Description:
By secondary structure, this protein is an alpha/beta fold. 29% of the residues lie in helices and 31% in strands. The chain has three domains: 62 residues, PUA domain (Archaeosine Trna-guanine Transglycosylase, Chain: A, domain 4); 102 residues, RNA methyltransferase domain (HRMD) like (Transcription Regulator spoIIAA); 193 residues, Vaccinia Virus protein VP39 (Rossmann fold, 3-Layer(aba) Sandwich), CATH 3.40.50. It contains eleven helices and 21 strands.
Amino acid sequence: MKKITVRTKAAKKLRAGYPLLVAEDLNSPFSEDDFAQFFDEKGQALGIGYLSKQNKGVGWLLDSSSVKIDHHFYVEKFVNARALRANFYQDELTNAFRLFNGEGDGLGGLTIDFYNGFAVFSWYNQFIYSQKKAIVKAFQVVFPDIKGAYEKLRFSEAALESQHIFGQEAAEPLLVMENGVTYATYLNEGLMTGIFLDQKNVRGALAGGLSTGKTLLNMFSYTGAFSVAAAFGGSSQTTSVDLAKRSLDKTREQFLVNGIEPESQKIYVMDVFGYFNYAKKKELTYDMIVLDPPSFARNGKKTFSVAKNYGDLVKEAVEILENNGTLIASTNAANVSDKKFRQMIEEALKNKGVKFTVFQEEKLPADFHIADSFPEGNYLKVLFIKIKK
Length: 389
């Protein structure tokens, strides 16, 4: 195990329980991934963790003492995580949720999701993946009821994206339920499964009646999950728009598994900004518009990033939104703070000269457990905005 000295500022953060280490925190660069004991510049122990580069940072603090990271350590983490989610196991209308949320549950670099009896592990760096055998063994002790499991390798050095790791293989599609709505998922089809579990509360609001009798436009619709939730909740008609060709068949499937005829809804495979122009030309308007773009996207020579272009998206949406319509503005971009996100939206709306009220706000659902010492782990930002023209 390596002994790593961190700078004064970093030592202060680690003492306060902040779990993420970045390269600037270390007194000297590290040469290889490993478990590490962290010390301040005076040689005082700060705790134990590991070093391994991932999309955010170079390592994680796992415990403020010098506890041994072994089978018992992992079992304890899983026992606590399971207890925290006891309510989700009792919910007869939902059988897909997050079982283990990385640093929020005390083990940065790993998340585990539950899909109707199956588990999906996501590994975010090489080192945590090298501990797979011990982690999976501990998981099976605490979750003996899991039928089978898959894994997603979400780090750049990985030779593959997805594979089955133990137990039964899931049906394709595997039907899961959330807030009474059925979703078709695929547990071994690349990095994505067909539904983003972090948007549970937004889909729940739509399925629960927010969209009743209203037309809804779902931009960057992926597999159409927001559209299906809205149709289930009584929307008069949904329109789903996504550039990816696969989105058409995937969205049709989501409607079909809920007994909704896809032909009764509208699904377009096209660029979102192109659709805004099309809608304006055809004088189409909507009672509700959902904007949930990827953090970054490229279409030919055009690029879109939430940090730079979200305001443009809002301005376009306002033009085809009915008076007293609702805009659901969402992002999972970790590089955009809550304050900046709200600022971009408010500036765009003021620029369009409309009156607006934020009447609901959503962050991550309760199963995405967040560490108090790491608020940026709560990356999801969703504003429900009533707009008067």
